[in-house]
Amino acid sequence: MLDCERPPAAVLRELINGYQVSQAIHAAAALGLADLLGDLPRGNDDLAAETRTHPASLYRLLRALAAAGVFREHDGRRFTLTPLGECLRSDAKEPMGGWARYIGRPAHWRAWGGLLDGVRTGENAFHLVHGVKVWQARAADPDEQAIFDQAMMNLSRGLVADLLESCDFSRFGTLVDVGGGQGTTLAAVLAAHPRLRGVLFDRPQTVEAARRELDAAGVAGRCRVVGGDFFSSVPPGGDAYLLKGVLQDWDDEQSVRILSQCRRAMSADANLIVVDREIGPPNACLNGKLSDLNMLVSPGGQNRTREEYQALLSAAGFRVLGVRPMPDDRCAITALPQEKEERS
Asked: Are 180 and 186 in contact (CB under 8 A)?
């Protein structure tokens, strides 16, 4: 929204220069500055020595981010964390450091440089810039895959509390987390519901690393880890199937294929829970709309309106029972197999 107390050109200039703040935060996260800072002020030269950076240049980075509200500058070029900066810590309740490290990486950054061509052609910007799909690029580069996985784990950790508040998992016996990554979400849901059992399903190379997350949460004994391809099949036997942040990565045709595989695996009494960004009304819900642009740039999918999600589910043989709004322009959609509705 426009700040009426400032000249429009000044507000627009700040929006135009937003990429500078993004890269500054990325640099701070890549250097691990938030983990090095605490409640007591720490000097710039000390931080430069520990991070092996140029002291004068590091100071310029730190003071800029202090002006942005991420750090706080004290006398003698000493710095502490602000509440914003605390979120960059690796042990933060809602960690954002992994996402900050990911968004400034050259591959992702260059893909956003292809947004204009993506808008002109309707093609995926990452593919236009790099010549391969983002999934292929990550599969060929273990370091990039690891950074992306850490970003997704961080974002999942921040979403878990909202998910547990929005969805009642206590009524299920077995929850299948389809495309569940490294298990951050499923581990938290199982920890909150001691009688619930889980199945983590994702690509083989992804779920292999999930065992550590499940062990650390103390739920590995109640969770089966399955590797596979959700375009081909999904593990059967669940009372509920969770698709969190999955459909937004794919176009309509591919999303219906994923949903159809879930439908084939589900019994007539099983529930499907879809958690994703929702495109809100005009002139509002910026997070959802920027996330949608990110889908155009990187994986090639899209965020959708509530009606568009319902159309996808209907095409795959589901009927929507309810939609619950969640923070950060997300929603939780509960659906049942169409056949069960027809027999009711």
From this structure: yes
Give CA–CA dist 288/295, Å, rounded: 11
Q: What's the sign of the alpha-carbon dihedral 199, 200, 202, 208?
A: negative
User: What's the token pair of residue 185?
Assistant: 């979400």
Task: Give the pLDDT confidence score for residue 2 in this predicted structure.
Answer: 52
pLDDT in tens, 39-97: 789 999 999 999 999 999 999 999 999 999 999 999 999 999 999 999 999 999 889 99
Using alpha carbons only, give the angle 210, 150, 50 rounded to the nearest 5 degrees.
125
Secondary structure of 208-267 as H, E, C letters: CCHHHHHHHCCCHHHEEEEECCCCCCCCCCCCEEEEECCHHHCCHHHHHHHHHHHHHHCC
Q: Tokens 């990429």 correspond to what residue?
A: 19
pTM above 0.85, yes or no: yes
Q: Are strands 174-178 and 197-202 parallel, antiparallel or unpaired?
A: parallel
